[in-house]
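Quick one, probably user error.
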């Protein structure tokens, strides 16, 4: 290809071709052919595994079926992000709450260039995601958008919530459920790709009258937002290669829950955190 095209155009053409196979109509087949036959560490392997965090102990990998009993007075929260249309490949452990940090779709479910419009294909993909949510083993599910989810940005909050009826959809807003207050922002920094939904120079700050936030979700990690909010758990995604979790010295948890790797294969592990419950009055904004 480099012989026939200038280097820059050849690189762009190669990247486009690879994205087509990674995330096009046969994206799941790409996973099956390039990863699943040789791996025993991915999220959808026969023996499902997860990253588990409890108290001030460092994160550890364990079989989902071998998780210890949830501590009394806590909520078992399972985090994932950047599923990019491959949600049905995941094997998630049972819990009380699922939190998804955005990029439900891949390139807004476009086979070619992401035009940023709420196409019939994109709407159908979101309905499929919602149907999948209804089958997951959680009492509550919280979802935010990401830069690949242009349809969510275009249709607006109320229609997005009607579409994702099996989740609490947050867009610079919060919900208090099961004694935990969760704030969600779909923010990621401005970029140069065609996947620019919800991208701004900086995230929208929470309102000053917001109650204490237990869990902060943003599509991309933002240190100033985390410092201003000071949540007990801060979960983000976006940077596929930074998947993982860390327990800080004061007990706060910071994690990246991206399920896809750099080749958009859904091979990373879900992250489970037992969060102590705080008794507050349920509300929504």
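Nope, works fine. Designed sequence:
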């Amino acid at each position: 290809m480099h012989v026939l095209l200038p280097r820059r155009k050849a690189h762009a053409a190669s990247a486009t071709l690879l994205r087509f196979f990674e995330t096009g109509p046969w994206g799941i087949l790409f996973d099956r052919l390039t990863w699943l036959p040789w791996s025993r560490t991915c999220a959808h392997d026969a023996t499902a595994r997860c990253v588990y965090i409890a108290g001030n102990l460092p994160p550890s990998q364990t079989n989902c079926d071998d998780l210890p009993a949830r501590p009394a007075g806590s909520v078992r929260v399972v985090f994932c992000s950047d599923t990019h249309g491959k949600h049905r490949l995941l094997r998630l452990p049972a819990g009380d709450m699922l939190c998804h940090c955005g990029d439900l779709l891949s390139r807004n479910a476009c086979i070619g260039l992401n035009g940023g419009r709420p196409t019939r294909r994109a709407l159908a993909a979101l309905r499929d995601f919602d149907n999948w949510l209804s089958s997951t083993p959680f009492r509550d599910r919280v979802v935010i958008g990401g830069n690949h989810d242009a349809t969510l940005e275009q249709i607006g909050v109320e229609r997005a919530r009607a579409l994702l009826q099996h989740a609490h959809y947050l867009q610079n807003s919060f919900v208090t459920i099961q004694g935990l207050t969760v704030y969600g922002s779909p923010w990621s920094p401005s970029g140069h790709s065609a996947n620019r939904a919800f991208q701004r120079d900086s995230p929208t700050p929470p309102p000053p009258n917001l109650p204490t936030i237990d869990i902060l979700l943003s599509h991309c990690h933002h240190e100033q937002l985390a410092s201003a909010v000071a949540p007990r758990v801060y979960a983000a995604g976006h940077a596929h290669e930074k998947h993982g979790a860390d327990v800080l010295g004061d007990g706060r948890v910071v994690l990246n829950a991206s399920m896809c790797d750099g080749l958009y294969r859904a091979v990373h592990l879900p992250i489970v955190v037992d969060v102590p419950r705080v008794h507050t009055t349920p509300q929504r904004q």
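The chain has six helices and 15 strands.
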